[in-house]
Amino acid sequence: MTESLPLAGYRVGVTAARKVEEQTSLLERRGAEVVWAPALSLDPNQVDDADLRAATEEVLAGPVDMFLATTGIGMRAWFDACESWGIVDRLLAALEGAEILARGPKSVGALRRRGLRELWAPESECFEDVLEHLRGRELTGRRIVVQEHGQSLSMVAHALRRQGADVVTVTVYRVLSADDPTPMFGLIDQVADRRLDAVTFTSAPAVAALMEAAGSTGRRDEVVTAFQADVVASCVGPVTAAAFELWGVPTIFPDRSRLTAMVKQLETELPSRREGLALELVGGHQLLLHRDGVLLDGVEVRLSPAPSAVLQALVANPGNVVPRRALLAMLPSGTAGSEHAVEMAVARLRAALGTKAVQTVVKRGYRLAVAR
Predict the structure, then answer these.
(1) CATH number of 13's domain
(2) Could you tell me if 89 and 29 lie in one domain?
(3) Residue 11 phi, psi (nearest 5)
């Protein structure tokens, strides 16, 4: 009976602190062996009332031209705190006349429950796309309020100030690492030693916490290398996956940011890596990858090490964008360490598979053009 379970024989690390029972159950019912190591505190979202009150008073000290909302939990906590201080109506009035940009549906929902309407929100839920939306706009003299999402957005504030904006950041809460780091240290060892097949992540701060812990143990480079080659970094959605871009780690994430969808994706991803992967490319071409080589429409394709490394990164994320930095990190040692080397490898891969097989996503990276 066990042999029929799709994840039987696979070991999966889980970094979540919340809803861990649900995720563990989803994995174990499919046959996986679960290693749990919470990256964050069980009560990670710590609100400093004094700091939040001071930041709120700064917001109310002048007109708000633009407001960037980043998380639903942060917006709800901020509004609730202001309600307890008796100033929520003042805050809502200040934000009502502003141009409101919301990062995703949860922040949109929190705003609308208080009668506020966003002017724009990116489909991707990526904060980088919010910045891209503002890039090139004349922001001189505009007073912009940015709600931070548990981690500092100081770089965002600096970028907006370079465009001439007057930026006020509001830290509603800070995300704390796990109280006991021992399980996380053990998980790091298992990733570095390739004793796990995949690790799941449900928030960007969890990624940051794991990398910080890996750095403190001296094994960060080994962890990054393992994720690039043998261990799948499975994320619940694009916002979490974006946290890995800094490290050049390829990730997978489902179309819908849900636990069930993330686990369902692992059902096909892990066996395909072990048994060989078959993909249908745009145009009806069949791509088959085995440890022994690559077949395109049944014909063997010979690839040199650099384009082969790029292909491995792209097929690990079929249809999803892989950043140039992640592809650069996958190139074999001795390859020139610049994005030009990535471009050359992609050009050779297109020459072997067809020019439409690899799509360029401007300013972000490349993706394998699989049929949907």
Answers:
(1) 3.40.50.10090
(2) no
(3) -110, 125
Same domain, 147 and 53: yes
Residue 284 sits in the same domain as residue 318: yes
Cα separation values, 352 from 34, 304, 348, Å: 39, 10, 6
CATH code for the domain in which residue 293 is found: 1.10.10.10
Model confidence at 2, pLDDT cuts 50, 70, 90, reads: very low
3-state SS class at 101? strand
> What is the b/e burial string over 161-195, where b = at least 16 CB atoms within 10 angstroms of the residue's CB?
eebebebbbbbbbbbbbbeebebbeebbbbbbeee
Same domain assignment for residues 291 and 231: no
Closest residue by Cα to residue 148 from 184, 125, 174: 174
Instruction: Give the pTM.
Output: 0.64
**Any idea which residue has 């394998």 for tokens?**
368
**Final residue belonging to a domain, choices 154, 172, 190:** 172
What domain range includes position 88?
Answer: 48-172
Tokens of residue 83, six digits: 């309600």
Q: How many domains would you assign to the chain?
A: 3
59-72 per-residue burial string, b: 16 or more CB within 10 A, e: under 16: beeeebbbbbbbbb
Cβ–Cβ contacts within 10 Å for residue 50, how many? 7
At residue 253, the 3 state secondary structure works out as coil
Q: Quote the pLDDT of residue 284.
A: 83
Strand 299-301 with 293-296, pairing: antiparallel
Last residue of a domain, one of 252, 271, 290: 271
pLDDT tens per residue across span 95-127: 999 999 998 888 999 999 999 999 999 877 677
Phi then psi for 175, rounded to 5 degrees? -90, 130
